[in-house]
Design brief:
heterodimer; A: alpha/beta; TIM Barrel; five-stranded parallel beta sheet; three-stranded parallel beta sheet; 9 helices; globular; B: alpha/beta; eight-stranded parallel β-barrel; 38% helix
Chain lengths: 257, 393
């Protein structure tokens, strides 16, 4: 499998994992290990970022995982920027998963404020991974301002509905010059595999692992699915619609005269 | 960003909505409809998209007919809550500031007609109480006060919020109703949320139980939550004081109020609380003919969860430990623990005359242990100072 490259940094795993919603920091740590992931996102609102003894942070081995702070809870560009600066000051990490979600129910990302925040953060030297709706034009605009990836949603966050935005995701994958990480709504390993098969560079999973009956086993299942999907993509899948072949020639009745 | 939509289609006010639905008085129409709900209606409500709201759906779920579907409702609610909130329960603690009150609410211990030694904490005394809460692990604090503007001024609250902010990531208030401008002042000082119960949506019952004081005006009270949203508050706590009027109809009115706020002030998060008058707390049953059984309370919570997937459901220490423990994971998202409901109660364990009697006397760490034993993570911090949009920035 090819390596995943984000901002010149290479990763073997194409699965990113979120840390919310777990029954305990211990279960979270076991699930992270089973997933084989190398990038772990943490909501700044949930942790005492400058306190290494924080229950969640203590369980994340910084030698093994890249800690990716996220701005969950921010309603505006201003708030997201402030949170990002705080995280960088406290941890020295200049990567940020940019989330600007003014709607507290579906937590859908605001395109206007996200673009605004991304522009500021990139200028300040952050490696910005923005969470967005599956909007191909917004993806291009973010790429233009210099974000490291785009992270379009498959369906509303936490909804486990899979790739409801597939048609738009395909356009984003086709047009993007930066890694595309499908970020939200993937409820089953098959959804993750599907995202990888259509050419996403990586996926991010949280709810589906954290709330599974056995989060550790589910983390492993996602690891395998992401690998399977990526390998299938690299193997050059046949498109069932456009490249179908009848098993008997349809024009066999035409004879050379 | 504007806190409210200015679209002219949203001009309708909450009082006119409640009036046109006949949810604010003479509720015989709804009592009749509730009786007419069939088991089949409940089944179809349960088959609808989980967490979506319509008045018809909620009517079915709070009806007497739904009582035989409680187990199914509980299973759905458990699944939905876990999906939306994860395996977590947020913990908070109330900090009572004053028992001086100018209102005459018949159900409340702080009623101005009651004779007892009233207490008001100075800001320093309040900070001493807060220190104890912080040392117990709390980062989410609810400032509570009865209504006496001479004792607890808006500036006092703002000052307190500014002093608490470095230690508490989330500050909310459950105090007397203010103007939008005053709420804005508190928001700028670091207050993130406001809890303001309508107490009852039934105008006649409201008049019967609120005998005097500024709170006696139903319409003013009803406008409160939207003023808090207008001020930018992130979290708005709604509730009816359960026991003042028929709970099934109250739930319908409460849901309409929430739905109105969600449509109009779409950036504020709504939560529901379930303050229940209980006979054990010295409430004479004759004065309160609508007291809820445990079963009623659970049905109400489950019905609201199945209609509102993402609202917070809050349960205080008014409720006994055993009931609270069973509700962990079924829909509740936020619990208080170790509460003292009299001003000064944390520093002085002898302080008496609380606003209501606490039933669950366990310490915060004991409650946290129960949450863990039930397979959930007790969350002390779910907010950050950096999200606070200070004016000076």
């Amino acid at each position: 499998m090819d390596k995943l490259i984000i901002a010149d940094r290479a990763f073997d795993s194409r699965l990113l994992v979120g840390t919310g919603k777990f029954a305990s920091p211990k279960v979270m740590a076991q699930a992270l290990a089973a997933s084989g992931c190398e990038i772990v996102t943490v909501a700044l609102r949930r942790v005492d970022i400058d306190n290494p003894a924080d229950d969640t942070l203590r369980e994340i081995d910084r030698d093994r995982f890249l800690l990716l702070p996220n701005t969950s809870g921010a309603r505006s560009a201003e708030e997201a920027v402030r949170l990002s600066r705080l995280a960088r000051a406290a941890t020295g990490i200049n990567w940020v998963k940019l989330e600007v979600t003014p709607d507290p129910y579906y937590l859908l990302p605001c395109p206007v404020e996200t673009l605004k925040a991304a522009e500021i953060l990139v200028k300040e030297g952050f490696v910005v991974l923005p969470y967005i709706n599956a909007d191909p034009i917004l993806a291009k605009r973010l790429e233009d301002v210099g974000t490291a990836t785009v992270m379009p949603l498959g369906s509303p966050i936490g909804s486990n509905q899979g790739l409801k935005t597939r048609a738009s995701l395909e356009i984003i994958v086709e047009q993007s010059n930066i890694p595309v990480v499908v970020d939200a709504g993937l409820g089953l390993p098959s959804h993750a595999a599907e995202a990888m098969e259509i050419g996403a560079d990586a996926v991010l999973i949280n709810t589906a692992i954290a709330t599974a009956g056995d989060p550790v086993e589910m983390a492993l299942a996602f690891k395998l699915a992401v690998e399977a999907g990526r390998r299938a993509y690299e193997a050059g899948p046949r498109d069932p619609l456009r490249k179908a072949e009848a098993s008997s020639p349809l024009t066999g009745f035409l004879r050379d005269e | 960003m504007k806190a409210a939509s200015e679209n002219s289609k949203l001009k309708e006010s909450i009082d006119s909505i409640l009036e046109s639905l006949r949810l604010d008085r003479d509720r015989s129409l709804w009592e009749q409809r509730l009786q007419q709900v069939t088991s089949q209606d409940v089944e179809s409500a349960l088959a609808s998209r989980p967490g979506s709201y319509s008045l018809t759906k909620l009517l079915a779920l709070v009806s007497p007919a739904a009582e035989s579907h409680l187990e199914q409702m509980a299973m759905l609610s458990q699944r939905l809550t876990m999906q939306r909130f994860g395996r977590t329960i947020r913990l908070y603690a109330p900090l009572y500031l004053s028992s001086h009150c100018v209102n005459r609410c018949r159900y409340c211990g702080f009623n101005r007609d009651n004779t007892f030694k009233r207490v008001r904490l100075t800001a320093d005394e309040a900070m001493a109480e807060a220190d104890i809460l912080a040392s117990e692990g709390f980062r989410d604090i609810l400032l509570v006060s009865s209504e006496d503007r001479a004792c607890i001024t808006v500036e006092y609250l703002a000052e307190l919020a500014r002093r608490l902010k470095p230690r508490f990531s989330f500050i909310s208030v459950e105090i007397y109703q203010m103007s939008a401008r005053e709420y804005e002042h508190l928001f700028d000082a670091g207050v993130d949320g406001v809890t303001l119960y309508q107490e009852t949506y039934d105008r006649d019952a409201y008049a019967r139980y609120h005998l005097g004081g500024p709170k006696a005006d139903y319409d003013t009270r009803l406008r409160g939550p939207q003023d808090t949203a207008q001020a930018g508050m992130r979290e708005i706590g709604l509730g009816a004081l359960l026991g003042l009027a028929d709970w099934r109809v109250e739930t319908l009115a409460l849901a309409e109020h929430a739905s109105y706020l969600m449509r109009r002030y779409w950036q504020s998060h709504i939560s529901f609380s379930f303050p229940r008058l209980r006979p054990a707390c010295g409430v004479p049953p004759a004065e309160f003919p609508h007291l809820l059984t445990d079963k009623n309370l659970v049905q109400m919570m489950l019905a609201l969860r199945l209609c509102f997937a993402d609202t917070g459901l809050v349960l205080s220490t008014r409720e006994p430990a055993q009931l609270r423990d069973h509700l962990i994971g079924l829909g509740v998202t936020r619990l208080s623990a170790g509460s003292r409901t009299s001003p000064g109660g944390y520093t002085d364990s002898q302080a008496n005359t609380g606003q209501f009697e606490v039933s669950d006397h366990r310490s915060p760490s004991e409650v946290a242990a129960v949450i863990r034993a039930r397979g959930l993570d007790p969350v002390w911090k779910d907010w950050d100072d950096a999200l606070w949009a200070r004016k000076k920035d």
